[in-house]
Amino acid sequence: DPYAQLLLEAMKHSGCTVFNDRHFSCENCDGCVSGGFDSATSQIVLCQNNIHQQSHMNRVVTHELIHAFDHCRAHVDWYKNVKHLACSEIRAANLSGDCTLMNEIARFKFGLKGHHQTCVRDRAIRSILAVRKVSKETAEKAVDEVFDACFNDLEPFGRIPHSKKDAKRAYRDFQNRDRYNANL
């Protein structure tokens, strides 16, 4: 999957090599949660009982790898600072493919102007509420306060990858990112 390839390469480039047997865990999960990132162990948990299609698993892996990338490159206070969590959830919803037009149509949620941003905002709030015992108002406030900066943070993709084709292009761009400077 080009989304995952790019994130794994970017993490390695940032000094955080991912090992499949160490950093991924398949488990049965409660409720309708599909996955999670455990910052204490730097491990991505995939909920094998709630993922039934390869495309869904690819999105979950990408979403959680974005959290892992954020954990690698920034000093994220996952537990005490809800704004940090909100920022990573915004980035994950924005960059993982969670809010593509096809996914939104499948959820019977679609609109025209500004729908991608609305989807990202709603999914970030939902994710915060799923992992933290905070009020909906607290989650909404945190998302609203950091939305613009975090929505516009497109690292390591450099663009919002709306399709696998976009993700492949972003991966090629990432691989060539330092090529010009290396020739100087």
UniProtKB/TrEMBL annotation:
It comes from Calypte anna. Coiled coil: none annotated. GO terms for molecular function: metal ion binding; metalloendopeptidase activity. One of its GO terms (biological process) is mitochondrial proton-transporting ATP synthase complex assembly. It is an enzyme of class 3 (hydrolase). Keywords: Hydrolase, Metal-binding, Metalloprotease, Protease. Belongs to the peptidase M76 family. This is Mitochondrial inner membrane protease ATP23. GO terms for cellular component: mitochondrion. The keyword Protein transport does not apply. It comes from the Eukaryota. Its EC number is 3.4.24.-.
